[in-house]
Design goal:
Helices cover 67% and strands 7% of the residues. It has 167 residues and is mainly alpha-helical.
Length: 167
C-alpha cells in the first residue's frame, strides 16, 4: 500500500489530549482524504471499495468538520460560488487544504486517481459497496461532492492551511 500520505499526516496531525499526560496524534481530515485515495488506488475493490467509501464520508461531513463559522468567515467566496451549498463548499475547502498539505505534485496525482475512478464509474462502485441502491439522485450527489473536492485539490491558489480541529 502507498504510504506517502502518512508522512504528511504526521506533519499536519492534530494533537488530542485524552487525559492529563496522555496525548495522541490524529491525522487531519485533509490528509485523510489523500491517504484514503492512495489506499483506494492500491486496494480498490479488494476491500469492497471501503477506502473510497471512507473518502466520500469525509467529504460528506466536511461541513461539520469545518463548522459554519470557518466556512462563512474564512471561505465566504467559495460558499457563494457554490450557491450557498455548504456541503459542496466544505468539500472544496477540504480539497484546497489537502493540496496545501501535500503539495501540487501529489495533489495532481490524487486528482488523477479520482478522475480516472469517476470515469470508471466509481460512484456506482461506492453505492454497491455500501449496500445502497444506485439512483440518479445519489449518483449526482456523490459526483457533485467529488467534483467540488477536485476543484479545491486542483485550484490555483488554495487558502492557507488551517490546522483542522484547532482554533
Amino acid at each position: 500500500m502507498d504510504v506517502r500520505g502518512f508522512g504528511v499526516a504526521l506533519i499536519h496531525g492534530i494533537q488530542i489530549e485524552i487525559k492529563p499526560g496522555l496525548e495522541i496524534l490524529l491525522p487531519n481530515p485533509a490528509c485523510m482524504t489523500v491517504m484514503k485515495t492512495l489506499a483506494w488506488k492500491d486496494r480498490g475493490m479488494a476491500t469492497r471499495g471501503r477506502d473510497a467509501l471512507d473518502l466520500v464520508e469525509l467529504l460528506l461531513r466536511a461541513e461539520d468538520i469545518f463548522g459554519l463559522e470557518v466556512l462563512y468567515d474564512d471561505h465566504l467566496g467559495i460558499v457563494e460560488a457554490k450557491g450557498g451549498d455548504l456541503q459542496l463548499a466544505a468539500a472544496q475547502v477540504l480539497g484546497a487544504e489537502a493540496r496545501m498539505a501535500v503539495g501540487a505534485v501529489m495533489a495532481q496525482e490524487v486528482a488523477s486517481i479520482l478522475v480516472k475512478g469517476m470515469a470508471e464509474n466509481l460512484v456506482t462502485q461506492l453505492l454497491e459497496g455500501s449496500g445502497g441502491m444506485p439512483t440518479t439522485e445519489r449518483n449526482e450527489s456523490i459526483t457533485n461532492i467529488l467534483e467540488s473536492f477536485l476543484n479545491g485539490l486542483q485550484g490555483p491558489t488554495p487558502p492557507p492551511l488551517r490546522r483542522l480541529g484547532q482554533e
